[in-house]
Amino acid sequence: MLQITPMPVVNAETPARGELTSPTGVRTFPRLRDFGNYLLQVGSVSYFFVGGLGISIFAPLLCLTLGRSRATQVGRRAISSLFRGYVAWLQWVGLFRIRFEGCDLLKDLSGVIVTPNHPSLLDAVYLMSLVPRPICIMRAGLKNNPCLSGAAGLAGFITNDRGASLIRQCQTKLAAGDNLLIFPEGTRTVAGARGVNTFKSGFALTAVLTGAPIQTVLIERNGSYLSKGVGLFSVAQIPIDIVIRPGEVFHALPGESARDLAARMEAYFRTQLVSTGDSVRLRN
């Protein structure tokens, strides 16, 4: 097991005169001595989205030749393998240092709602490389993204715009042993939030109606690259440290409403995490 090292403070230095920065303080153009890392950073992010576009092109052919059910099974395994490879690549080239602390238990989940905080764009990738049979509940707008829609459709992801049918689909997936990956914040954590954004209650309603356990996951992140409002091509302070660890398991209490369950879990995340704008980290 890798040991956690202190997470460095990033973006703390004042940019040199003439350097371009974003409103969040992230440099939007690299210094000459950082240019090699920047090219690697842009190339790695571009590789992810180009790969997603390739899956979108390939997915209809896979469904046509194998049939929808079989294609979904094959597609899920392929996407999980690709995500594991991508996470390994990010670490091998030195862009990220990703630590999965105590996460072996996540590999055995079945019929569980997995609820991480959401500090950066690639959080779903990290977890889908680890959690078996993951079904991501995704924002409806992403189904129109050509780089993401193919993989999402192939893996049987569910969009959050389906009203009552969303709950029925979630119930069916959980009963089949799939694990629902849901970000209770609904979007990435905004700078200045008290650890997390205000939680939505849709995930909690699913838990109340199905009785499924909720496995929380705590994600720490240094730097603001890929956080809310920071562009893909902003300059990252390399390496980017990510630490992922399981949190407490929650169950809906007898008679507890979805709103109350969501509020109880939001309070838990706020006691565990602090957001400084530049980072999201554990309070202890």
Radius of gyration: 19 Å
Give the biggest beta sheet. 9 strands, mixed
Helix content: 25-40%
- The total strand number stands at 9
Give the number of domains: 1
Weakly predicted, low-confidence segments = 1-23
Structure write-up:
With 284 residues, the chain is of the alpha/beta class. It has one domain (32-282): Glycerol-3-phosphate (1)-acyltransferase (3-Layer(aba) Sandwich), CATH 3.40.1130. It has seven helices and nine strands. The protein has helices at 35-66, 68-92, 123-128, 149-154, 164-175, 202-210, 258-272, and strands at 96-100, 113-116, 134-138, 158-159, 179-181, 214-222, 240-250, 273-275, 279-282. Strands 1, 2, 3, 4, 5, 6, 7, 8 and 9 form a nine-stranded mixed sheet that branches. β8 (273-275) and β9 (279-282) form a beta hairpin. It is globular, with a radius of gyration of 19 Å. The two termini are 20 Å apart. Residues 1-23 have low confidence and may be disordered.
Give the topology:
Layout: H1 35-66, H2 68-92, E1 96-100, E2 113-116, H3 123-128, E3 134-138, H4 149-154, E4 158-159, H5 164-175, E5 179-181, H6 202-210, E6 214-222, E7 240-250, H7 258-272, E8 273-275, E9 279-282
Parallel strand pairs: 1-7, 2-5, 2-6, 3-4, 3-5
Antiparallel strand pairs: 6-7, 6-9, 8-9
Short description:
This protein has 284 residues and is an alpha/beta fold. It has helices at residues 35-66, 68-92, 123-128, 149-154, 164-175, 202-210, 258-272; strands at residues 96-100, 113-116, 134-138, 158-159, 179-181, 214-222, 240-250, 273-275, 279-282.
